[in-house]
Amino acid sequence: MRNKLTSLLLGLGLAGSAMLATSGSAQAHGYTDSPVSRQQLCGNGTVRNCGQIQWEPPSVEGPKGFPARGPGDGHICSGGIGRFSELDDPRGGKWPTTKLTAGQNHTFVWRITARHATTDFRYYITKDGWDPTKPLTRADLDPQPFLSVPFGGRQPGSTVTHDGVLPRKTGQHIILGVWTIADTGNAFYACSDVRF
């Protein structure tokens, strides 16, 4: 009887630890809706053959600290999550693009399906001359974000908007949105294909 009770308590303790270990990442989810992200294009059916991301567009969560840390090169758009690797596939440079005007103001929109304390939102863009037929790497991006929005640990609402001036670019680019969570080791990643 004593062994059964000990086993039961040990099992409950392990289950509780597992729940605590995973609950931090399960509380926050989101993606960019403007410009539309790859995961949103898969989720709304605009792009087919997307694998599991079509059912989980707000779940591209990977390690925070980008660009020094975070998902590895070639796996940035998926947040380094193997089951979402379709987001890293450049599809021959043929992802649908959002048309933008360089140097103009744009309202960036995040859809938040589960709120979490937030450090900041940052937006990076590819360098001129990058190759849209290859998976995204850090070397493809301008090293500094063109827009940073500090959030001071506050929780965002279900829709978050940021106004910012678009960089002076021409042609096709990727805008990488990074939503950094304050109280976990993770951030959310969203790649949006755009054309200036």
UniProtKB/TrEMBL annotation:
Domain (Chitin-binding type-4) ranges: 29-194
An annotated Gene Ontology molecular function: monooxygenase activity
Feature: compositional bias, Gly residues: 71-82
Domain of life: Bacteria
CDD domains per UniProt: LPMO_AA10 (cd21177)
Keyword Hydrolase: no
UniProt region (Disordered), positions on chain: 57-97
Keywords in alphabetical order: Monooxygenase, Oxidoreductase, Signal
Pfam families linked: LPMO_10
UniProt keyword Cell inner membrane, yes or no: no
Residues in the signal sequence: 1-28
PANTHER family for this protein: CHITIN-BINDING TYPE-4 DOMAIN-CONTAINING PROTEIN, GLCNAC-BINDING PROTEIN A
Record-given protein name: Lytic polysaccharide monooxygenase
Organism the protein comes from: Streptomyces atriruber
